[in-house]
Structure formats: C-alpha cells, structure tokens
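The records we work with from here on pair a chain with its fold. The integers have meaning only within a learned vocabulary of local backbone shapes. A complete example follows; check for yourself that the lines match position by position.

:::
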Amino acid sequence: MLNNKIVIIDYHMGNLRSVQKAFEKMGCDAIITNDHEMIRSASKIVLPGVGAFKDGMKNLYELGLIDILNEEIIKKKKPFLGICLGMQLIAKKSYEKSETNGLAWIDAEVVKFDFKDNDKKFKIPHVGWNNVKYKNDNKLFEHIPDNSDFYFVHSYYFKTDEDIVISTTDYGFDFISSVNKDNIYAFQFHPEKSQSVGLKLIENFVNLKEHS
C-alpha cells in the first residue's frame, strides 16, 4: 500500500484548506504545515498558493523552506505538485512588478498576459473555466478526457523552452497550463476547484509511486 502522507506547504499564501479537503476526499492524511520534520516525513509535497510571486518567495525564505524543499524534492525526488502560484514559483524568475528570482527548478520565466486594445474580450486576470488540451500522455491526466474544463485565476503565465509541457490552454493564444519534469508536476489551474476532473487529477497524483 502506498504511503500517502501528503504535506501541503504553509507559506502564508492563500487559503490552503480547499486543497487539504480535496486530498482528504481521496482518503489521504493531508497536513498543512511548514514544520521541517513534518516535511521530511511526507511521501508527497504540495505547494499551492495565490498572490504575488515576490511575496511567495519572501515567505519561503523567511520560513526557512528553500533548503528543505530542495532537499526533499530535487535531491530525494519526492513527488511534488505545484498549483497556481506554486507552479510559477518553480521557475527561474518572474517579471511580476519587478524581476524576482524563483526556485529555479525549471528553466522558465513568468510573464504577464499582454493584450492589445482590440483584444478587450480577454480580461486580466484570466478568471473562470477554460479547457485544457493535452500535449502528451501523462499519468496525472489518466482517465480525464482531453479538453476538459478546469478553473483558472491568474494574470501571469509560465514560459519555458524545456520539453516538459503536458498541456496548454487557449486564452487569446496557447499558454502553458501544466508541466512535468521527473517528479515535479505543476498546474496553473486549480484542480481543487475543478469538480470531478480536478479530483481525478488529485487522485492520480495520490496514486503516483514515490520516486517514480
């Protein structure tokens, strides 16, 4: 039986309870914490979050979480799920308000949607349901139909040239809505707010084998 002690990183960025409840529906012991020993004991690690990139990185530093996350995720290869801001923070840098360095787990940058005056139908932030188109087969999308709708709330998006894109979403153009590199999975949308397809994605993450 899989050890499914899920640790949801508490770095004071957004309401984490909805993420915890989604994992609890899957029968998991899901704990919201920033305690280092609890993080070390986790089988899988989740970094959700909403808000500003710079604030997120500042809080991770001030809580002493950078080294422990690098140790558990990059060195030990524990399965990791980044959600919304949690996806953006794994990039090398963001240009939100000012240039800010990220965790740099992915060679990527985070940039703002920039629509011309004649594209007023594309509001910023991008809020609401939008479909997700799969670029390749991936374990986390198993038994989820292509072009399923997921829930988004964001003004910035992820850009990378690495061959790790697993889905895109059309919002005036196709932007990257999820990536997977080794044990790292990250999604711009909110699976915990995306009803049955979101819960299925979380179930698929729960069922990943450690170090897979």
User: Anything to note?
Assistant: The chain has one domain: 5-206. The radius of gyration is 16 Å.
